[in-house]
Write a structure and sequence with these properties.
By secondary structure, this protein is mainly alpha-helical. Helices cover 75% and strands 0% of the residues.
Length: 157
């Protein structure tokens, strides 16, 4: 008759709180399982959850970095829009009564041209952040957000 190989076990001596030890004894008595089997199962499940938790945390960290980059990109767009509005207000005179209708038609035409240009740039894979990156941000991940830069400037003032 062949011998069944015995699995190798290592003896450990953990300390338990009295209440937990009593609960363990009650559970083992009612289920018919050994203390070693219950502890091993519980420890295995805990370690598997911990491994899964590490994976989840890694993914959450990655998502967090993406959100930070998106936030930084949004700040660049907001700053660009604010600069544009300031320049527009500085350069555009108020339009009075009779000229408003003509200006409105011209604005609609110019806006349609603008939308077409935006569509072309997006279709070509270009964007404002690409232009800003080429202009000075060599490592986009290392670049501070506009808000961080303002805070840093205020701190050094």
């Amino acid at each position: 008759m062949g011998m069944i190989p015995r699995r190798r076990c290592v003896r450990i001596h953990p300390y338990l709180d009295e209440g937990v030890a009593q609960q363990l004894d009650i559970h083992c008595a009612s289920s018919g399982a050994t203390v070693s089997a219950v502890v091993e199962t519980a420890l295995r499940e805990h370690l598997e959850r911990t491994g899964a938790m590490t994976t989840i945390m890694t993914r959450l960290d990655r998502i967090g970095r993406r959100i930070e980059r998106t936030h930084r990109d949004l700040e660049i767009f907001m700053e660009a829009f604010a600069v544009w509005v300031k320049i527009w207000f500085a350069c555009m005179p108020r339009i009075d009564g009779d000229n408003r209708e003509i200006a409105a038609r011209q604005a609609e035409s110019r806006f349609a041209e603008f939308v077409e240009l935006v569509v072309q740039r997006i279709a070509a894979g270009e964007g404002l952040f690409d232009d800003v990156s080429r202009a000075g941000l060599r490592d986009p991940d290392a670049a501070p957000s506009a808000r961080e830069a303002r805070i840093h400037e205020k701190g050094n003032a």
